[in-house]
Structures are given as structure tokens and as C-alpha cells.
């Protein structure tokens, strides 16, 4: 009788504190700014990552709320809880946010931290963190699992963002659990999709209208020529 067994792939052994120390020293030697990594006594380490925000769709933010102050940050005041009013807002395309994180900070925590900094109240499942790599003149994106540690990836790749960078994008892989969203959020999604559809229709109509005008002008000029 044939028995099929699931064989788990052997995961590499986690690096020792000494190996981490050597990697951090090598990393810091290449840093051209003050954004160094620091090793702690317990073997964890802290450092900085930069995340590019490449969001094509608007996000939901509290309406009419002042920006967060230093006092609010120190007291951990969540301004989003101070009002039930919501509005849609386009974040600047390709904005860059710098985060100071730990080696134990996961991708899930990075996404939640970014949304909190921009006071975005959308469900974090709408978003995904990607690593962007350049190889042979091509730009490659790979979605990171929620349990991955971005700072460790940064340490392995070095400080050069041309080798590796992080990008926050919409989660469009079909893994979004729509049941987790409220009815107002789902209605907001429909409004956004309706607007995008109308904008696309107008773009196509303008494109072919210009093409039609050029053809008509060419025909008019051709009729005026002899022969």
C-alpha cells in the first residue's frame, strides 16, 4: 500500500548573535547617512526601513480632524476614534515613509503602523507589502507574507535601496476577506469603482474623439487637393 507523506522543507537555522553582529557591522560600514542598525543585548536589533506608497485608489480617513501632534503621539491618542465621519482621500503617489522598527517587527505590524501614521481607517487586509528588486534591467515585485520580518531582509540586502526596497500597494490577489468589511466600507468601494469606471470611459471617449477629428481633418485636406 502506497502512503503519501507530507515532507516539510528544512528551514535554515536562525543566525547566531555573533553572525548577526557581523552582518550589522558589514551593513553599517556601507551606510552613508545616520540610519544605522543597532544590536541589543538580547540578540534583537533595530534599524530603519523606507516604504514607498504606491496606492492607486483612495483611502478612508476621518473627516475634519487636525494632524496628530507630538502630545497625541506620546499619549497614544487615536484621533480616528474621535469622530465617526469618514471621507475618501488620495495619498500622494509614491510618497515615502521612513519607519524605525525592530527585528521582531512583522510585515503585518508594518502595514498597521503605516495606516496609523496616515490615520487610515480602512481594513489592513486591503493592503499588502511588497519587496521591489531590480535584476537585468527589470523591476520585480514579490508580495511578502504577513509573518516576514522586513528589517532582516533589509539587513541581508544592505542599505542600497536600488537592490531592495519596500512598497505598500493594494492587496489585489483575491485574498481579501470581504466579510470583514462593514456595509459603509463596501458601499464606499462601489462608489470608488463606479467613479473609476466613468473616468475610464471618458478617457476612451476623448481618445477616439481626437482620433476622429484628425481623420476628418485629413479627409477635408485631401478633398481640397487636385487629383
TrEMBL record:
InterPro entries: RA_dom, RASSF1-6, RASSF5_RA, SARAH_dom, Ubiquitin-like_domsf. One of its GO terms (cellular component) is nucleus. It is found in: Cytoplasm, Cytoskeleton. It comes from Ibidorhyncha struthersii. This is Ras association domain-containing protein 5. Pfam families: Nore1-SARAH, RA. Residues 175-222 form the SARAH domain. Residues 194-221 form a coiled coil. Its main location: cytoplasm.
Amino acid at each position: 500500500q502506497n502512503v503519501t507523506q507530507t515532507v516539510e522543507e528544512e528551514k535554515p537555522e536562525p543566525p547566531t548573535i555573533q553572525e548577526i553582529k557581523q552582518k550589522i557591522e558589514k551593513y553599517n560600514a556601507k551606510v552613508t547617512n545616520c540610519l544605522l542598525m543597532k544590536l541589543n543585548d538580547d540578540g534583537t536589533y533595530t534599524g530603519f526601513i523606507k516604504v514607498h506608497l504606491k496606492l492607486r485608489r483612495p483611502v478612508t480617513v476621518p473627516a475634519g480632524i487636525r494632524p496628530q501632534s507630538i502630545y497625541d503621539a506620546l499619549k497614544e491618542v487615536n484621533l480616528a476614534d474621535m469622530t465617526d465621519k469618514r471621507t475618501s482621500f488620495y495619498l500622494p503617489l509614491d510618497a515615502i515613509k521612513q519607519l524605525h522598527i525592530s527585528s521582531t517587527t512583522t510585515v503585518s505590524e508594518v502595514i498597521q503602523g503605516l495606516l496609523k501614521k496616515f490615520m487610515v481607517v480602512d481594513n489592513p487586509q486591503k493592503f499588502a507589502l511588497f519587496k521591489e528588486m531590480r535584476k537585468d534591467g527589470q523591476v520585480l515585485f514579490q508580495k511578502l507574507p504577513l509573518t516576514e520580518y522586513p528589517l532582516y531582509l533589509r539587513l541581508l540586502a544592505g542599505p542600497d535601496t536600488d537592490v531592495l526596497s519596500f512598497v505598500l500597494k493594494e492587496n489585489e490577489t483575491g485574498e481579501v476577506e470581504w466579510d470583514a468589511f462593514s456595509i459603509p466600507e463596501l458601499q464606499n468601494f462601489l462608489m470608488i469603482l463606479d467613479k473609476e469606471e466613468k473616468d475610464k470611459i471618458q478617457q476612451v471617449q476623448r481618445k477616439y474623439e481626437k482620433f476622429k477629428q484628425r481623420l476628418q481633418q485629413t479627409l477635408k485636406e485631401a478633398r481640397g487637393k487636385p487629383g
